[in-house]
């Protein structure tokens, strides 16, 4: 839970509209309804504080919200309220979500008090609690626990508006002896019962004692003054509104007169245009079928151009994977166990291929390793290609620190497997490396393969066999270089190594800072 007094204010602000027996431990900020729902606690619907992840279903909540429910739940099992999830999670089956907390810490927020123009602070969620502790004071009504920005506003609330403070009618006991909410006084004053009591008092049918009369006069004087202020304000507002209405009426009248004149002109123009259109309809009917066909051709060409602009056609694919932590959580909870790479080709008229990644592992490797597979897809030129597919496939999990500590693994196709025959369906069954990389290393903070929640995987199909010893060198080449330049650099490196004496160790790549 948040300890500061202003955090209590935020929690009470939300709970005033939805009563709950549990505290709301998240951060309440301005414009919270437009914040991404993935940053909100599944219990209190506020921005998550101390994020934890429920291992069984993968959903996230505040630590305080979960522990408050676990403390009173049978066997400390809490039911997930997200949509129709309803998975029960024990307090021993939660884990801190450090990667998600980093996303929360840099989330831009505005102070909750911006709603009533009391504060214009904006900043990162990581700094929000310090702002609340340092800037905002708390004035609380002990009857209803509502908070206010000043003592004067609190006093006015207690005197007139608190829904939990009751008082007697100024005409009691003749009107009623019941205690009335202060917020209901105006409604009571206009009630038939109260009006009847006033009438009987005015005609002398009711009489008050001297002491009670003085008290009631004081109450009535205060009420009269309040009525006068409200009526005066309403009269002022109505006068302004009437002036605006009068001005608008004059403006509308002038516009209407002008519109009538324009309308006559427009009617004549429409009539002339209609005659002109009637003359052109036969021409339109004659060209319409060709126009429709041309539009379809243009759309098809646009789709082809758009698709080809981003498709690799040299047998290599550098796959950029964003939102890695979210995709791992989806794979862990089995909402989406795998993701597919973009399609790529061995050439413009070559094999059509794609990769399939299991971030939480597949089969026997589930929960222990990252699994990566390669799949052949049904292509337009399959009839003229050589089958079965028999080219070596190399997977590279790229080091993003520049130290070239890439994870590299390769496999040769099993030419007897259906996975590498000519595709009959949309895609063959994927085949590859179930244990590409230990999952425990990928989940570590600050690992070299995930930066800014993004990872890169390079897939290379060896159409021209590249010696295994050259793979580290190939991965040092700048990916921004065109393919033909990279191929020339590889050829130069092969020649250079062949010219070196046999005693020289050629296993280390020559760094290329081009």
UniProtKB/TrEMBL annotation:
Keywords: Apoptosis, Coiled coil, Cytoplasm, Isopeptide bond, Metal-binding, Ubl conjugation, Zinc, Zinc-finger. One of its GO terms (biological process) is apoptotic process. Residues 314-461 form the MATH domain. CDD domains: MATH_TRAF_C. GO terms for cellular component: cytoplasm; cytoplasmic side of plasma membrane. Its main location: cytoplasm. One of its GO terms (molecular function) is tumor necrosis factor receptor binding. The keyword Ubl conjugation applies. It is found in: Cytoplasm. Residues 139-159 form the C2H2-type domain. It holds the Pfam family TRAF-mep_MATH. Residues 41-84 form the RING-type domain. This is TNF receptor-associated factor. It comes from Rotaria magnacalcarata.
């Amino acid at each position: 839970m948040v300890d500061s007094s202003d955090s209590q204010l935020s929690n009470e602000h939300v709970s005033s509209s939805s009563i709950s027996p549990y505290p709301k431990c998240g951060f309440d900020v301005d414009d919270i309804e437009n914040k991404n729902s993935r940053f909100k606690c599944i219990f209190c619907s506020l921005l998550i504080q101390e994020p934890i992840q429920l291992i069984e279903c993968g959903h996230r909540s505040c630590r305080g919200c979960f522990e408050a429910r676990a403390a009173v739940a049978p066997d400390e099992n809490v039911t997930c309220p997200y949509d129709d999830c309803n998975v029960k999670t024990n307090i021993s089956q939660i884990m801190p979500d450090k990667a998600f907390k980093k996303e929360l810490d840099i989330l831009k927020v505005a102070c909750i008090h911006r709603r009533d123009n009391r504060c214009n602070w904006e900043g990162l969620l990581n700094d929000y609690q310090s702002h609340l502790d340092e800037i905002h004071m708390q004035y609380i009504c002990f009857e209803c626990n509502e908070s206010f920005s000043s003592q004067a506003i609190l006093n006015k609330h207690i005197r007139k508006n608190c829904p939990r403070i009751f008082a007697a009618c100024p005409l009691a006991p003749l009107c009623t002896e019941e205690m009335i909410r202060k917020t209901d006084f105006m409604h009571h004053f206009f009630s038939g019962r109260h009006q009847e009591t006033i009438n009987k008092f005015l005609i002398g049918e009711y009489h008050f004692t001297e002491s009670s009369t003085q008290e009631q006069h004081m109450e009535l004087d205060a009420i009269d003054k309040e009525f006068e202020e409200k009526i005066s304000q309403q009269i002022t507002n109505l006068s302004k509104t009437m002036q605006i209405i009068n001005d608008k009426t004059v403006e509308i009248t002038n516009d209407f007169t002008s519109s009538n004149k324009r309308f006559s002109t427009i009617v004549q123009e429409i009539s002339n245009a209609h005659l002109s259109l009637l003359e052109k309809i036969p021409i339109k009917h004659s060209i319409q079928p060709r126009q429709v066909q041309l539009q379809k051709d243009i759309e098809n060409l646009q789709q082809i151009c758009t698709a080809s602009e981003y498709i690799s056609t040299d047998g290599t694919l550098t796959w950029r994977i964003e939102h890695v932590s979210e995709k791992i959580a989806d794979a862990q909870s089995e909402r989406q166990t795998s993701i597919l790479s973009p399609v790529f080709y061995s050439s413009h008229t070559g094999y059509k291929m794609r990769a399939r990644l299991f971030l939480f592992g597949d089969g026997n490797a589930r929960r222990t390793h990252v699994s990566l597979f390669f799949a052949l897809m049904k292509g337009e030129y399959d009839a003229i290609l050589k089958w079965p597919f028999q080219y070596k496939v190399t997977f590279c999990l790229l080091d993003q620190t520049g130290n070239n500590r890439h994870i590299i693994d390769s496999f040769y196709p099993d030419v007897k497997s259906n996975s590498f025959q000519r595709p009959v369906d949309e895609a063959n069954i994927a085949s590859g490396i179930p244990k590409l990389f230990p999952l425990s290393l990928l989940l570590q903070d600050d690992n070299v393969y995930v930066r800014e929640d993004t990872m890169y995987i390079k897939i290379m199909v060896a159409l021209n066999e590249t010696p295994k010893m050259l793979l580290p060198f190939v991965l040092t080449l700048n990916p921004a270089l065109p393919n033909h330049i990279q191929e020339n650099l590889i050829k130069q490196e092969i020649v250079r190594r062949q010219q070196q004496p046999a005693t020289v160790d050629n296993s280390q790549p020559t760094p290329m800072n081009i």
